[in-house]
Design a protein that fits this description.
Blueprint: H1 2-13, E1 27-33, H2 40-58, E2 62-67, H3 76-89, E3 93-96, H4 105-113, E4 118-121, E5 132-135, H5 138-152, E6 156-163, H6 169-182, E7 187-196, H7 201-215, E8 221-224, H8 227-239, E9 248-252, H9 256-263, E10 269-272, H10 275-290, E11 298-300, E12 304-306, H11 314-320, H12 324-327
Parallel strand pairs: 1-2, 1-3, 3-4, 4-5, 5-11, 6-7, 6-8, 8-9, 9-10
Antiparallel strand pairs: 10-12
């Protein structure tokens, strides 16, 4: 009798076990964790991630992107907590822009050990656990900035480098590239290269004022390593009447304020990334990995030097004005 019941149950479930139409459709939940959530750069990364989600869903791949990160770009503890929470939730994959190249190593290792693959984007991690690193060549971006500033100064003058934050691999690479480029010009003197802007425009503005109070009468050129510090230093130069090209100002990233400052003649160059592409490729790469495809260990998303002379070119305009409203509603 028992064997008859067992046989009937098996027959009843045959259609569901593979005799009917087979489906391999899966759904993926991907956590995208930026360094912060307020600056325009991260909103562009978010837009790229959403773009990837929409395109993949349109191709029949079910993807849900969850966007969550610390409010401030100096809150390492909160970012670690976010990574740990997503690991506990057993998301399909994590895309992470590490606030600190060392502090996020263990949280990433724990995620990978739990079977959750990790793509690192934007800023490097001192680990080999991630499946891919999707980022700008930040060293090259710093070199471009340094070479352009040297050209504007005619190969001589006094320069300030305003750094960002200790432990931020992306900006440390930019700063190194900048200093290496200027080292080829013996008549360029570094007035200051050891001051840090910090995570907000407010801290960057204070650092900028302090530097200009000390060196404002002697400086000929300045480089700032990210969006908020570029905006803050430009404002500080205006405050003392040194903007408009009196002091050559080179920045990094294309926030809307920096673009306006360039149009107004207060910024002479910006090393510009493609954060929309970075967010897009990070999610696409993660889905490829989840589907069993091979992925590249290093994906370079490009960097260009934007100046008042080329900023109206169509391809440059697209970088300076990313379509955030199309994806972030």
């Amino acid at each position: 009798m028992k064997s008859l019941v067992h046989l009937l149950l098996c027959v009843a479930f045959v259609p569901f076990a593979g005799c009917g139409k087979k489906t391999d459709e899966k759904s993926y939940t991907i956590a995208v964790i930026p360094k912060g959530t307020t600056h325009e750069f991260w909103k562009s990364i978010h837009a790229g991630a959403v773009k990837a989600q929409q395109e993949l869903n349109g191709k029949g791949v079910k993807v849900e992107v969850i966007w969550k990160g610390p409010l401030r770009e100096d809150d390492r503890d909160q970012q670690i907590q976010v990574v740990e929470n997503f690991t506990s939730r057993r998301v399909s994959g994590i895309v992470l822009a590490p606030l600190d190249s060392q502090a996020l190593v263990n949280p990433v290792a724990s995620a990978v050990q739990s079977g959750i693959p990790v793509v690192v984007m934007d800023s490097g991690l001192k680990s080999d656990k991630q499946i891919s690193f999707v980022a700008t060549d930040n060293y090259k971006g710093g070199q471009l900035a340094g070479e352009h500033l040297a050209k504007l100064l005619g190969g001589k003058g006094n320069v300030i480098l305003l750094r960002y934050a200790v432990g931020s691999a992306s900006t440390e690479e930019r700063e190194k590239g900048f200093l290496d480029a200027l080292s080829k010009f013996p008549e360029i003197k570094m007035l200051s290269s050891d001051q840090y802007a910090g995570a907000t425009r407010e801290t960057a503005y204070q650092a900028s004022q302090n530097l200009l109070n000390r060196f404002g009468n002697d400086v000929n050129g300045i480089f700032c390593a990210n969006e908020p510090s570029t905006i803050a230093m430009t404002k500080a130069l205006r405050d003392i009447g040194k903007a408009g090209g009196k002091v050559k100002m080179i920045g990094f990233d294309a926030g809307s304020q920096s673009v306006r400052d360039m149009k107004n003649g207060d910024v002479q160059g910006l090393a510009v990334q493609n954060p929309v592409l970075m967010g897009y490729l990070s999610v696409v790469t993660m889905v490829k990995q989840l589907q069993g495809e091979n992925v590249e260990k290093r994906i370079d998303t490009g960097v260009v030097l934007v100046t008042p002379e080329n900023m109206e070119q169509p391809d440059i305009k697209d970088l300076l004005n990313p379509p955030l409203d199309k994806y972030l509603k």
